[in-house]
Every structure is written in structure tokens, then in C-alpha cells.
């Protein structure tokens, strides 16, 4: 029986080869060599490169510097790469293309000594047609000259590139992304690689989506070319397979194409019983588009995609007909790891990106430049929405530098328009002109008119064209296009620092000045870093969808994982992450889990105790619990110490709790006193042993030279419980077909590549990478003074290659994350208050400008004449109503306090002082029925808190309209006012 099966498989393989259905995309990653420095004859095939450094891609030539050096010290050079290969006989050789997912920064490519093409934007993928440069029956040589200079200049224009910036775009040089080789016959579907090739590939999209009925109309468009000698008539056949690889639909259309022609072929059909892609539900279909001639498949393309319905309106984002408040992270596009940079194994991208979803983030905003294909596809699988930029730094530009941005946006849209996780295209990291926004929108409309994706830019608060906006870290509200904060909360803190009571006893904020300024916000301990995540998110939560006509659509926290980019704290890398560089969570990660577990409002069961429970006897400290419940009780060894004082909606504080070894328990309750959840911290015993765990891809571990294993080491007590205050130095050793890449810890050189490094808070991690073509068993051992050692082992699986070309199995078969479920039956949006429309306005001065304070435009305001006597404005509602709250956005909201009085129909209902905020201050009033609301400045405003929000160059971020009110003591400036009646 087994022989029959084997014979059948061989026969099937032969048939596939004849019919041209065999896979025709192979990895071009193996067998490269590189040389640092320019070499005059490096492009020539006969150059002796045996002393060059062998490398398997993807790998930056300066990867060792990731986290070892600060970003501005990353090495730059001209570096040559060379690869020799032969063509496999079983594939069509009529049209052969190379696909580079990206190089850093500029690259010139030669095949067999002849110049083939150049690519220079340092970000996006590009293709090369090498059909006429290749030898079918002899050795071939590809040579690539790369240049990752920070000041790289475009050859044709001598222009630099705006996004080649030392602050945020970590410089991992050479070829740090995958390279693929495509074999095509004379009739084929093009690649989505506009750069160099000018082709747009396949476009899959849905129309007439009906979520309730689970149906849609599926459209497939594919650009095809005929390079043969005869016109061709055929059939464009579409097969649709679900996530279980079950065929769910087949449909087709006829086509004919002339000699030397290219055209777009289309087909469409209804699709029923659709499983919709959603947040935390990475349900993907495989749409196979085939060109069939005389009954034979001559070309096919598999497109992994998902279907979802979107809308961007009323200041909110709708996903599958439900309002979703944006909650997530502004992550550096490099998304790097120590001593590896961005060039990680595919499963590790899934692991990192899924952690964002596990913190209950729904959106990642990649920063400044487009992400690489691996991260985009990973977000599809894990169910994480993406805001995808093209290329930018911090401002609008003109001329060739603007054209460079439009070209990268074009290339990114074409390359990623089938990825369901891409929900936003970002046209700039700062506001751009309306004319430029119109250009970007036209590019979207040309290449992705049906993808359900909004295009906008940071800022764009008053744009009539942008489909979303939002400031960097302040809060905006809108009744029109959604406003999303793009990088709030910049505070930094090492995972190593628990609090002031735990070794190494890091005092909150202790650290050097940053450029002569106080840097305490960038040297936090874990307690305070976690609390700051709550304090900042609370301000967005207050103005969430459901709180009126004008709302905030959320924001993204900068950043998710500690990053080898610009920093303001003591270390030489940025530690703003909710996880560290090895993706070990900090307490802020769990705080987000509590606050973000829901489409808008949080699941009330969310609960987390900040910190640990292993202190010296006699220690007293404030215990904080993050909870989405209404009340929280704390118990020490079973004895209640009472209920916590609530602040910022989610924090419950228990002051001066005396440490007692044993058990610390938190219980949360709803408003009726029903127990919702409980969490426990237990005291660990004395450190006793090391414990090792390892992770690799669920699809296997392969000898492709890029696959990786992540090893975690813990210090545990005799019961196997982690010792949260342990800081032991651990010595590693290993044998087997893998290379050591190590981890990171505070200390000399950040312990990059070291085989000995300490645990921090009782745990650390290291990476090992497979060697190309080297399979077998690997063993890792760990030991530390005074502790029982540990050992683990695993096996690396072999791969098959043909002339150095292979199927990258580590990319194939990675599972999708569907943990959150389809998400189509979430509760309806909770409406908590109703906006009261304003009919007219009068004021002590400049009354004609009064409407600017409620025009839904946060770049305009009403302001008096500077006289305290005239510092009042009165609003008349459309009709009398119960008035409970007023939201005010006042100029210099981040730094200035205003003593105010509020009158309703001449009755004083508020007499107090505003506090500084990230945007809106809420005045809570005793419910008063009336129609006229007067806001009056009672005394001079004053600077309450210095605005410390500044860019790296020292420029302070605006906190209001573009006017200096610093010395205007009698000035009252209202950017926006919203008046509310609360609902029961």
C-alpha cells in the first residue's frame, strides 16, 4: 500500500510539472557572501569571493549592533553581496524575476556582470526582470552593491530621502529582508512590484458586504502579460479555499490577449457563509487565480486575504458594522530584536505581534516608513489592524522629496492592498497640505479603490479631504472623520526596576538630564510606568465613542517593545515598551489588558495587581490594583485590608500596606457587590534552580538559516515558582547546528551576544538561529552559582534545495490566531451622555468668533481681547435641557490652568480651576435645567505645569492654537466646548 501511495505521489508531481502547477516562487536567501567596502570588480562573475563572509538572508551586515549601539552610531558603508546559482530544469524559464522585499538604503543589482537595475528608497519591495541576463545551462552570478549611508542621495536628483533619519529609522544595512525568485511561462500574472517592473499584480476585494447574512460579492482582478509568439485565448479561473483549505467557491471568466500585450482580467461571484476577518480573529481565505489555456493551468497565484467591512464616519471607526475604539501601539517599523535587528524568523513576527493582541490592542501604527511584508502578513494572521505609512520624517516637503513620498505610497498600496489587516494608509507623520492630501488620496483611489481603507495623515485636524486625523499625543474629538492619537505616552522605564523597595532600589525618575532638561519621565520604575499607562489612557476613555456627538476614536501608545531608536533616559535605547526587547511583559502590558479588553468599554472582569509580593520584612508600600470593576478589595493572607481608593477610572490604591510573606489577593466587584474576579500574588521561596523553556514556530523548525528558537530562563524556588527579585548571572552553553544570538540586560554593552547574562526580575530570554542546510539536535545548558542547572534540547528539521533555491518552509503553514472569536455579536455601543446643540453665542469680546469654539475644528478658537472684564462667553442651547457636564479644550491645555465660573440661566453652578490635560477638561456640574450657559474667567490663568512634550530637537509640541498666550493674564481661549446631558 505504501508503495502505491508513493508511486501516486510521484505521478502527481510529474503531472504538476507538465501542467505548470508546481510552485514557481523559491527563496533566494541562501548562498550569499558579502564584503564591507567598495570593490571595483565586484560585479564580475569571475571575481574570487571565497574570502568574503558567507551569509543567509535576511540578515543585516551590521546586525550585531542592534541594541549594542545607539541608533545614531549604527555603522554605514558600501557593502557588496554576491550569490552564485544555477537554474532548476523543472520550472519555466521564459520569464524570471527577482523580488527584493527591501534593501537598506540604496542598491545596484548586476546579473552575470551586467547592470540590471537600481532601487533607492530603502523601504519598499521592488522587482527585477532578469530573463535576458540569465544562463539556462551555466552558473549565474548576482551581485548587489548596497549603501546604507545616513545621507544617501538619489542618483538622478542628488536628493536625500526624508525618512533616512537617525532618530527613528534604525539602520540595519544591506539586505535585511527576504529575496525571492519567480519563474513564469510566456503567459503570466504580473507581480505587485511597481518599482522597476511597473506591474500591479492581483487585486482581490469584496463589494456589497452583508455582515448579518454573511455574504459578499468577491471580485478578482489580475494584470496579465503575454510574451509569447501567439495570441492566447483562455479562462481566468478563481478557486476560493477557506482557512481549513476546503474549496468553497470556483468561478471564472474568458479572456483573450494579443502578442506582447498586457491587460487586466476580471472575474466575480457571490460568496456565502463568509467568515469575516476581525480583531483577534485572523480568518484568512486563499484565493487562487489561474490562467487556463486548452485545459491546462499555465500560471497561478495564491493570494492570502480576508474579508471585512469598514466605515469611517461620525468621528468613529466601524469594523463589521460595529464601533471599534482604536487601542494599540505606535511601533517602530524596524520592530527589532537584540543582535538580529528586524530580520527575525516569520513565527517570531507572529509571536511579537500576537502579544499586542493579547494585551488587547487592536491597532499597530508602524512609524514613519512602511513595514516589511513579513510583519504585514503576520498582522493578517494574528488579527491586528494596521496603520501603514509610506515614508516621512516630521514635516511636509516639496519638489523631488515629495515625489519620493508619493512613489513609496504607490508601491506600498500596490504591495499590501490584499492584506485585510491594513485599515489606514498614513500619508505623513505631520500634517500635509490639502493639495498633497489630494494627491495621496488619488493614488489610493487608483490602486485600491475598493479595499475599505481610510487615507489620512497625522494632524489634518481641519482637512476636508483626509479620512482620519489626530495629533501626536494629544486628544482630539470629531463628529466627522475619526481622530486617533498617533503616539501618546513617551515615558520610559526598564523592566529590571520594580520599585524603590526592590533591588536595585531604583528611585522613581532617577537618571541623568536629557539635553539639559529633567528626564524623570524617561527613567521610571515598573510601578510608575504602569500607572502612567492608566493615567494617559483614562483621558481617551473619558471621551470615547458613546460620550456625545463629538468623540475621540482612541489612540496608540508609543511603543510596544523597547526599541533601538532614539531615547531620552539613561540607557542607549528606548525603553517605552510595554514589553522589553525580548518581548517579556512589563506591568504596563497587564494594565492595558485590563483597560482595553472590549470594543469600546472594558470587560469589567479585568484585574491586575501591580508589582510582586517578595519584600523585606517590615516593608510598607502603596499597593495598586488595575481593575475595570467598580470596587476592589485587598486581602493579605486572607485578612481584608479594605477597599481601594479609585482614581483615573481603573486604579485602586491601598496605602501603606505592610508586607507579610504569603498571599496578596485582590477581588473586584460590580456596582451591586457581585464578585467579578480575583487575582493572587504569592511570595516565592529562596532561589533554588534554573528553569528553561523554549519556543519556535508551530509549523516546525527548519534549517533555512533564518529560523529561530527563543529560550527563556527563569530562577525558581523549590516549588517551581519564579523568584521575582532574582538577578543571578546565568552562564549558557550549547551544541548543535545553530548560532548564538543571545539576549539583552542592563550592563556592559547591554550584554549583546554574550553567552553569560543576568536574569532581571527573575527571568530573561536568548535567541538562537539555524544554519542553512544544517539539521539535527541542539542542546542548551544554563547554570548559575548556587542554583540547580537546567538543560533542554530540540531538533532542527532539514530542507530541500535545488541549486541553492528552496521553499521557505518556516513561512508556510503558520497558524492564524482566532482566540477572540468572530466578534460579530458584541453588545451595542453604550451611550452615556447626549450632546446639547448650541443655537447662538454672545461674548464679552470678539462675539463674531464665538462659533469657532463649537465648530468641530480644533485649529480654530474663540478668544477675548485680553481683558479680564471681557473674559466671558455665553451659549444659548437650541432648547432647555438638563445640563450635567461640560468638556472644554482650552488653549495651552497641557500647561495652563484657568480659574472659571459657570452659570446656567444666571445661576452659579461651577466655581473652580481647570487642571492640565492632554486635551479636554471635564467640568462636572450639579444637574441643572436651563438654556443659557455662561463661561467666565474668574481670575488670571497661569502656567500650572511646564509642557515637557518636545521632539528630539527640542521643539516643544503645540498644545493649542498657534498663538502665544503666555503673557495674556486676562485671556480666555476656548478651542472647543461640548455641553452634555448624562443618560442614566
Automatic annotation (TrEMBL):
PANTHER family: BETA-GALACTOSIDASE, BETA-MANNOSIDASE
Homology family: Belongs to the glycosyl hydrolase 2 family.
Protein name: Sugar-binding domain-containing protein
Residue span, Glycoside hydrolase family domain: 699-793
Domain DUF4982: 618-673
InterPro entries in the record: Beta-gal/glucu_dom_sf (IPR036156), Beta-mannosidase-like_N2 (IPR054593), DUF4982 (IPR032311), Galactose-bd-like_sf (IPR008979), GH (IPR017853), GH2_Domain-Containing (IPR051913), Glyco_hydro2_dom5 (IPR040605), Ig-like_fold (IPR013783)
Organism: Sphingobacterium suaedae
Keywords from the UniProt entry: Glycosidase, Hydrolase
Amino acid at each position: 500500500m505504501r508503495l502505491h501511495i508513493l508511486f501516486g505521489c510521484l505521478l502527481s508531481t510529474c503531472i504538476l510539472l507538465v501542467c505548470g502547477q508546481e510552485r514557481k516562487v523559491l527563496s533566494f536567501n541562501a548562498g550569499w557572501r558579502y564584503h564591507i567596502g567598495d570593490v571595483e570588480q565586484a560585479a564580475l562573475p569571475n571575481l574570487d569571493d571565497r574570502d568574503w563572509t558567507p551569509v543567509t538572508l535576511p540578515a543585516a551586515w551590521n546586525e550585531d549592533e542592534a541594541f549594542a549601539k545607539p541608533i545614531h552610531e549604527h555603522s554605514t558603508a558600501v557593502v557588496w553581496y554576491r550569490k552564485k546559482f544555477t537554474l532548476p530544469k523543472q520550472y519555466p524559464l521564459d520569464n524570471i524575476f527577482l523580488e527584493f522585499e527591501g534593501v537598506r538604503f540604496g542598491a545596484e543589482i548586476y546579473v552575470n556582470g551586467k547592470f540590471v537595475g537600481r532601487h533607492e528608497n530603502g523601504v519598499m519591495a521592488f522587482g527585477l526582470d532578469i530573463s535576458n541576463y540569465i544562463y539556462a545551462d551555466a552558473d549565474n552570478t548576482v551581485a548587489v552593491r548596497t549603501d546604507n549611508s545616513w545621507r544617501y542621495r538619489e542618483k538622478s536628483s542628488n536628493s536625500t530621502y526624508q525618512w533616512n533619519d537617525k532618530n527613528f529609522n534604525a539602520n540595519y544595512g544591506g539586505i535585511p529582508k527576504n529575496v525571492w525568485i519567480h519563474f513564469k511561462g510566456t503567459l503570466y500574472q504580473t507581480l505587485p512590484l511597481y518599482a522597476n517592473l511597473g506591474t500591479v499584480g492581483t487585486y482581490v476585494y469584496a463589494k456589497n458586504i452583508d455582515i448579518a447574512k454573511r455574504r459578499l460579492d468577491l471580485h478578482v482582478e489580475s494584470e496579465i502579460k503575454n510574451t509569447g509568439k501567439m495570441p492566447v485565448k483562455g479562462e481566468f479561473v478563481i478557486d476560493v479555499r477557506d482557512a481549513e483549505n476546503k474549496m468553497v467557491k470556483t468561478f471564472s471568466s474568458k479572456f483573450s490577449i494579443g502578442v506582447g500585450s498586457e491587460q487586466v482580467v476580471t472575474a466575480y461571484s457571490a460568496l456565502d457563509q463568509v467568515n469575516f476577518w476581525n480583531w483577534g480573529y485572523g480568518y484568512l481565505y486563499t484565493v487562487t487565480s489561474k490562467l487556463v489555456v486548452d485545459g491546462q493551468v499555465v500560471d497561478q497565484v495564491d493570494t492570502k486575504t480576508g474579508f471585512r467591512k469598514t466605515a469611517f464616519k461620525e468621528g468613529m471607526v466601524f469594523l463589521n458594522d460595529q464601533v471599534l475604539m482604536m487601542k494599540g501601539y505606535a511601533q517602530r517599523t524596524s520592530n527589532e530584536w537584540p543582535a538580529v535587528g528586524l530580520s527575525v524568523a516569520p513565527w517570531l513576527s507572529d509571536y511579537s505581534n500576537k502579544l499586542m493582541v493579547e494585551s488587547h490592542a487592536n491597532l499597530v501604527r508602524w512609524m514613519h516608513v512602511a513595514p516589511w511584508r513579513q510583519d504585514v502578513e503576520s498582522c493578517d494572521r494574528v488579527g491586528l489592524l494596521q496603520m501603514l505609512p509610506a515614508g516621512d520624517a516630521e514635516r511636509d516637503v516639496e519638489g523631488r522629496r515629495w515625489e519620493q513620498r508619493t512613489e513609496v505610497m504607490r508601491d506600498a498600496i500596490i504591495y499590501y492592498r490584499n492584506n485585510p489587516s491594513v485599515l489606514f494608509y498614513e500619508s505623513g507623520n505631520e500634517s500635509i497640505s490639502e493639495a498633497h492630501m489630494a494627491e495621496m488620496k488619488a493614488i489610493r483611489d487608483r490602486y485600491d479603490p475598493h479595499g475599505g481603507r481610510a487615507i489620512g495623515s497625522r494632524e489634518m485636524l481641519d482637512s476636508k479631504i483626509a479620512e482620519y486625523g489626530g495629533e501626536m499625543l494629544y486628544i482630539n474629538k470629531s463628529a466627522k472623520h475619526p481622530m486617533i492619537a498617533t503616539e501618546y505616552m513617551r515615558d520610559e522605564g526598564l523592566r529590571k526596576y520594580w520599585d524603590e523597595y526592590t533591588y536595585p532600589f531604583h528611585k522613581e525618575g532617577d537618571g541623568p538630564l536629557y539635553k539639559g532638561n529633567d528626564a524623570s519621565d524617561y527613567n521610571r520604575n515598573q510601578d510608575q510606568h504602569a500607572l502612567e499607562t492608566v493615567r494617559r489612557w483614562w483621558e481617551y476613555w473619558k471621551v470615547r465613542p458613546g460620550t456625545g456627538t463629538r468623540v475621540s476614536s482612541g489612540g496608540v501608545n508609543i511603543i510596544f517593545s523597547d526599541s533601538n531608536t532614539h531615547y531620552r533616559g539613561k540607557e542607549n535605547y528606548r525603553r517605552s515598551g510595554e514589553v522589553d526587547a525580548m518581548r517579556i511583559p512589563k506591568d504596563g502590558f497587564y494594565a492595558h489588558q485590563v483597560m482595553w479588553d472590549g470594543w469600546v468599554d472594558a470587560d469589567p472582569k479585568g484585574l491586575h495587581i501591580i508589582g510582586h509580593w517578595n519584600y523585606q520584612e517590615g516593608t510598607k508600600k502603596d499597593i495598586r490594583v488595575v481593575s475595570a470593576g467598580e470596587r476592589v478589595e485587598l486581602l493579605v493572607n486572607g485578612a481584608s485590608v479594605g477597599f481601594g481608593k479609585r482614581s483615573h477610572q481603573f486604579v485602586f490604591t491601598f496605602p501603606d500596606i505592610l508586607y507579610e510573606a504569603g498571599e496578596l489577593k485582590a477581588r473586584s466587584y460590580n456596582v451591586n457587590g457581585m464578585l467579578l474576579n480575583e487575582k493572587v500574588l504569592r511570595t516565592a521561596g529562596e532561589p533554588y534552580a534554573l528553569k528553561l523553556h523554549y519556543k519556535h514556530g508551530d509549523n516546525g523548525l527548519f534549517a533555512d538559516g533564518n529560523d529561530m528558537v527563543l529560550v527563556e530562563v527563569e530562577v525558581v524556588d523549590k516549588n517551581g515558582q519564579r523568584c521575582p527579585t532574582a538577578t543571578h548571572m546565568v552562564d549558557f552553553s550549547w551544541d548543535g547546528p545553530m548560532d548564538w544570538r543571545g539576549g539583552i540586560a542592563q550592563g556592559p554593552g547591554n550584554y549583546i551576544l554574550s553567552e553569560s547574562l543576568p536574569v532581571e526580575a527573575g527571568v530573561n530570554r536568548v535567541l538562537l538561529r539555524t544554519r542553512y542546510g544544517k539539521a539535527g539536535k541542539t542542546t542548551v545548558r544554563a547554570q548559575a552559582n548556587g542554583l540547580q542547572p537546567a538543560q533542554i534540547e530540540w531538533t532542527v528539521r532539514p530542507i530541500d534545495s535545488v541549486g541553492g533555491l528552496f521553499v521557505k518552509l518556516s513561512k508556510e503553514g503558520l497558524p492564524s490566531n482566532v482566540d477572540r472569536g468572530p466578534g460579530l455579536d458584541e453588545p451595542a455601543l453604550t451611550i452615556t451622555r447626549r450632546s446639547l446643540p448650541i443655537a447662538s453665542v454672545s461674548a464679552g469680546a470678539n462675539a463674531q468668533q464665538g462659533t469657532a469654539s463649537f465648530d468641530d475644528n480644533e485649529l480654530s478658537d474663540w478668544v477675548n481681547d485680553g481683558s479680564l472684564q471681557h473674559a466671558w462667553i455665553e451659549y444659548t442651547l437650541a432648547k432647555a435641557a438638563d445640563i450635567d457636564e461640560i468638556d472644554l479644550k482650552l488653549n495651552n491645555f497641557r500647561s495652563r490652568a484657568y480659574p472659571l465660573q459657570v452659570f446656567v440661566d444666571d445661576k452659579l453652578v461651577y466655581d473652580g480651576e481647570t487642571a492640565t490635560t492632554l486635551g479636554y477638561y471635564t467640568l462636572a456640574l450639579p444637574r441643572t435645567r436651563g438654556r443659557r450657559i455662561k463661561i467666565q474667567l474668574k481670575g488670571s490663568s497661569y502656567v500650572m505645569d511646564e509642557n515637557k512634550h518636545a521632539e528630539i530637537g527640542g521643539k516643544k509640541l503645540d498644545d493649542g492654537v498657534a498663538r502665544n498666550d503666555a503673557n495674556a493674564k486676562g485671556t480666555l481661549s476656548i478651542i472647543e466646548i461640548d455641553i452634555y446631558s448624562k443618560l442614566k
